[in-house]
Amino acid sequence: MLTTFKATAKKLPEGLQVESNSRGFKIILDEPEDMGGTDKGMNPVETLLCALGACQSIVASAFAEANDFSFDEFHIELEGDLDPDGFMGIADVRPGFQEIRFTMHFKTEESQEKAEAFADFIEKTCPVGDCLANGVKMVKAGVVRH
Questions:
Q1: Most buried residue, 9, 89, 129, 136, by most Cβ within 10 Å?
Q2: Nearest 5°: phi and psi at 59?
Q3: Taking phi first (over 0 means left), then psi (-120 to 50 degrees means alpha), and beta for anything else, what does residue 24 get?
Q4: Distance (Å, whole) CA 71 – CA 143
Q5: CB atoms within 10 A of CB 102
Q6: pLDDT of 106-126, one tens digit each?
Q7: CA distance 118 to 100
């Protein structure tokens, strides 16, 4: 059964700041000053990396016991490559990430083989990772002029 998640994004008056909201939780996104922003928050692609890392971390915590895997600490380092010239319209290149790399760090007594198998499970199960790896159908549901 499909579940629909909802969010809003509202342009704020200052610089390129945007307030995003979902279920009453808010985050401020922006761009660095050299990209025309006020540097008051992460930019959307940084937030995307954070969303991927958070999703993988949640999957690790939620499914460790069911996978007979235990760890004391877990964190992920993520980085992605994109060419800002695509976003700025300077060059005819993709505006989005061309590659995202991540390294999972477990503080655990489990074997390397078991940690790698659990990491594979995390990667296979993470909804954000699935969206990025397999693409999502984007539907413009309308344009409203006030």
A1: 129
A2: -60, -45
A3: left
A4: 48
A5: 16
A6: 999 999 999 999 999 999 999
A7: 20
Residue 94: half-sphere exposure toward Cβ, Cα within 13 Å:
6
Cβ atoms of 15 and 24 closer than 8 Å: no
Assigned token pair, 108 = 């655990």
Q: What is the pTM of this model?
A: 0.94
d(C-alpha 67, C-alpha 60), whole Å: 10
Q: What distance in Å separates the CA atoms of residue 5 and residue 14, rounded to the nearest whole number?
A: 28
DSSP string, 12-66: -SSTT-EEEEETTEEEEE---GGGTS--SS--HHHHHHHHHHHHHHHHHHHHTGG
Q: List, in sequence order, every residue forming a beta bridge with 43; answer none if it has no partner.
A: none
For residue 107, give the 3-state DSSP assignment: strand
Q: Per this entry, what is the length of the chain? A: 146
